[in-house]
C-alpha cells in the first residue's frame, strides 16, 4: 500500500538533466523564429525599401485604402498625394501600403 523508503530514495529511473528539461522550450523557440519572426523581418525590409523608393508620379495605396498619385515628396517622412483632381493631402510615408505603378525616373537633362 505504501512505498517503501528504499524504493522512494532511488529517484527517477531516467535522469534527463538540465538540458533535457529545457530542450522542448528551445525547440519551440527555434520553430517560432523560422515560422514567425524571420518572415516578419523580411516583410519589414521589403516595406522599408518600398517606402525609400517612392518618388513623384507613383500611384500608391495607403493603409486606409485611399488610392492616389504622389505629387510631391515633402521630406523623409511626408508625402503630398493627389487623391483626385485638385484634392491633395499630406500623408506619412509609413502609411503607404503598396505601390500600384512606378513612374519613369526624371531625365537629367530636362
TrEMBL record:
Bilayer-crossing regions: 18-37
Residues in the signal sequence: none
Topology in membrane: Single-pass membrane protein
Name of the protein in question: Sec translocon accessory complex subunit YajC
Biological role stated in the UniProt entry: The SecYEG-SecDF-YajC-YidC holo-translocon (HTL) protein secretase/insertase is a supercomplex required for protein secretion, insertion of proteins into membranes, and assembly of membrane protein complexes. While the SecYEG complex is essential for assembly of a number of proteins and complexes, the SecDF-YajC-YidC subcomplex facilitates these functions.
InterPro entries: Preprotein_translocase_YajC
Subunit-structure text: Part of the SecDF-YidC-YajC translocase complex. The SecDF-YidC-YajC translocase forms a supercomplex with SecYEG, called the holo-translocon (HTL).
Gene name of the record: yajC
Intracellular or extracellular location(s): Cell membrane
Keywords for the protein's UniProt record, in alphabetical order: Cell membrane, Membrane, Protein transport, Translocation, Transmembrane, Transmembrane helix, Transport
SMART domains reported for this sequence: YajC
Similarity field: Belongs to the YajC family.
